[in-house]
Specification:
single chain, 7-stranded mixed β-sheet, alpha/beta, 2 domains
Length: about 250
């Protein structure tokens, strides 16, 4: 087992060959927020796949942080348009996840709960300082993660949600859960990685947070258009929307 990386650039290089959908700027946001949690904090990730984002979180978090990865590794909701359960793929993901964390030197820092997020609530005790949601992107489970797990985030804590303003299910769940919230302030995004911070807001703060979220709907529409073109095998046309014409927008 290698020693964990001690700086962002080294950690980013260590995940270069790890499968996943996390860009450089998203990794930076994960790294920064994990490094800021207080002593004795708790970080929870929902949806770990093969460990790309978890390596960044576990490498950055201060010593003594409880770090929990929740992923059933059953071969479903693995990526874009992958919703059919494939047991063999799930076991492969599980094995590769452990191998990747071992190679990055963080396997001993992470407790993996191999369950669906809806079934894992009792496996994590106490408040959460940093919650990263990248689980099932369908509206129902995405909304449940935001409500059930989001309620565990401490005052002043951070919520990060991947595929925001990109996935239809995740975006609708975000809007229903946080658009008119009086306690969740929208901070901003790195591509589709949205950041919220929990804490009371006055009426002016709520209006600012609402405007910022509504301001993302143009970018959301662009991403949905890209997905439609890619599904229709018209990827070359996505360049008109400033996209690379090949990958799913995230």
């Amino acid at each position: 087992m290698n020693a964990p990386a001690t700086d962002f650039d080294s950690a980013w290089a260590s995940v270069a060959d790890v499968d996943g959908w996390m860009s450089h700027d998203q990794a930076r946001r994960l790294w920064d927020r994990a490094s800021e949690v207080p002593a004795g904090a708790r970080i929870v990730e929902i949806g770990s796949f093969r460990g790309r984002s978890m390596i960044m979180l576990a490498t950055s978090a201060p010593e003594g942080t409880e770090i929990v990865a929740i992923d059933p590794h059953i071969g479903t909701d693995r990526g874009p348009q992958e919703i059919v359960t494939t047991t063999e793929l799930g076991q492969s993901d599980h094995d590769v996840f452990n191998a990747n964390l071992t190679r990055a030197g963080v396997i001993d820092r992470v407790r993996h709960v191999r369950k669906l997020s809806a079934e894992a609530l009792d496996d994590v005790e106490g408040p959460i300082d940093l919650l990263y949601i990248d689980g099932a992107h369908r509206y129902g489970p995405a909304r449940a993660d935001m409500v059930d797990w989001g309620s565990r985030v401490t005052d002043g804590g951070v919520l990060l949600v991947h595929d925001s303003w990109s996935s239809i299910g995740v975006t609708f769940a975000l809007l229903r859960t946080y658009l008119f919230s009086s306690e969740w302030r929208y901070v901003g995004r790195s591509r589709s990685l949205a950041e919220y911070r929990r804490g009371p807001m006055d009426p002016a703060g709520r209006r600012r947070s609402r405007r910022k979220q509504l301001g993302e709907l143009g970018w959301f529409a662009r991403n949905v258009g890209i997905k439609i073109l890619l599904t229709a095998r018209l990827g070359r046309l996505t360049r008109l929307l400033g996209h690379d014409g090949e990958t799913w927008p995230y």
